[in-house]
Protein zer-1 homolog
Amino acid sequence: LTMASDSPESLMRLCTDYCLRNLEGTLCYLLDNQTLQLHPDIFLPSEICDKLVNEYVELVKTDSIFEPHESFFTLFSDPRSTRLARIHLREQIVQDQDLEAIRKQDLVELYLTNCEKLTAKSLQTLVSFSHTLISLSLFGCCNIFYEEENPGGCEDDCLVNPTRQVLVKDFTFEGFSRLRFLNLGRLMEGVNVESLLRPLASLAALDLSGIQLGNVGFLTQWKDTLVSLVLYNMDLSEEHIQVITQLHKLRHLDISRDHLSSYYKFKLTRRVLTLFVEHLANLSSLDISGHTMLENCTIPSMEEKMGQTSIEPAKSSIAPFRALKRPLQFLGLFETSLCRLTHIPAYKVSGDKNEEQVLNAIEAYTEHRPEITSRAINLLFDIARIERCSQLLRALQLVITALKCHKDDKNIQVTGSAALFYLTNSEYRMEQSVRLRRQVIQVVLNGMEAYQEVTVQRNCCLTLCNFSIPEELEFQYRRVNELLLSILNQSRQDESIQRIAVHLCNALVCQVDNDHKEAVGKMGFVMTMLKLIQKKLADKTCDQVMEFSWSALWNITDETPDNCEMFLNYSGMKLFLECLKEFPEKQELHRNMLGLLGNVAEVRELRPQLMTAQFIGVFSNLLESKADGIEVSYNACGVLSHIMFDGPEAWSICEPQREEVVKRMWAAIQSWDINSRRNINYRSFEPILRLLPQGISPVSQHWATWALYNLVSVYSDKYCPLLIKEGGIPLLKDMIKMASARQETKEMAWKVIEHCSNFKEENMDTSR
């Protein structure tokens, strides 16, 4: 049984996404190298066009890689080839000319949310849709009633102040004969709402959120049609209540408020709630969140706590609601004392009592009330942190939606990213689909991109640590690396973020293919790590950041010559020597540094740069190191084995002498325990195997053979198949025949061959 969220994207969604990302290759061509033009033989119905426009807005808002097109909306200018009916446009994405481009369309539904770039020019464009428009939202379009007016006067004055914003007062909804649903939330002050709305014959739903109106008597003209009224954050009075009770067809009433935003004189009373129940017989949804109750509306405490929790009105803990004919579908009680009562007569309640109420609050308020949503998400964060979240998938989806919807709201980004950290930890992992976890990664990266703020960055980095790296981040590989490197390149850094970011960088370049490593190297990865090391060295500090940075360099240089060269070009060897001198006892640091130099030594063209008396002397001395078991000694010997492989003629220094170093290498190898457990991970044996078929350096041959014997003995399951797959057995057999190879090397080679042969037999499938 798969989870609902694990089902694949619909074919429509996939095709829409592909077309939008490849407009020129699918629906369009470029006219004059700049304007998008629809191919002449294309006709698209509204079912497709609506999705194209709405998905385009979503991509521009949430996908930083997606490039918006200036002329996108012109593709829908001609209804003979493209039809639009229901579109939702948001924020800075839409401008006056975009609406103007689609003015010939017969729009039925137009939602404009927080489109602050729209001016009074767009009011005139709205008139083009007046004969078809049924549903219109202008929520948060705070400049749409302003036009630019040239003040006249002298030229100098015009240059200083060429335009000024003037409020349009003569616009009304005259002619919008079919308009039934209207949202004017957060309309600017000064607009006469009554005269604006008067021409509308039969409004069914009206949202006047955040508008202060002393007189709302005009609402009674729709008393026989209005089924939904939202007066969020309107300071109410007794007159408002009298008007509301006359709207007898109301099914949804929202008089909630944000109790933190400003002082409200109005207090809810038992009598007001009783009036609503008596006069609004059809009421199925009521929101009174944020209100202070002037008097006690609850039944006596003893009675309230009796019996099993019930939604039956007759048992209601809120006395006025005992007169309801049936339970409400929704009751908003967020940030009121009423939500903590036992018997609440509603199927769905928003509040802060428990997880269900908190999730209902996030769901109800996300789109238009970020100030409330951030506080609800903060409550969810506490639930996820302290208790176990019982509706995990719903909680995750709601937080993802809030983070996408309010990408630029700092409070939501802080609380949302913190909640995601707890909702994605290992405890919940089994319940999450690949698709859902990818959505989490996308919104986390959006947050990191939009905010340099410490809390958001830390939360986002910590959340990424909950994922399998690099596997789960591979689909956003370039983007996540760029973001982490930009964090690490900031001049002022928070210690904890730095530590987490370096850890993530290290994990991202471990166990990935060479193309990925080269791409990350070109982004400045090597330089960034060396800068971190330099800073730590200056502070005489060897902490996790220092060790992770060297480990990351070890990983990114693995079989990647370009990155090895960058390490040398950016004074990596100088830093290696300084770290060795400053931190002589730091075993893990030594291991990471020597592992990295092993990668550099594998690149033939770079080995001459290691051939200095100083470097060879250091590597030779490290052969005797007991740091981290055999690892430092082993890696030092590996570096020297590759250098020896170039032959005596490449030994361009007088001291130490080649023979002396060879002797020390033999002694080191013979001192190692063949059963040593290893702190190393080989993806390929190729760099080791190339040391076998040669007679110029028997000690290099011996080091390579010892390495293979140790790995196939201790980690047979992993390394026997790898050695067989990469053709190691024939190379070992050929080496045994070589006269130049030492006898002990040949004996060890036989043991490797034997070990792999036994492994093959043990794992052979004998079933029939």
DSSP finds 31 helices and 14 strands in the chain. Residues 611-767 form one domain. The longest strand covers residues 86-90. The radius of gyration is 35 Å.
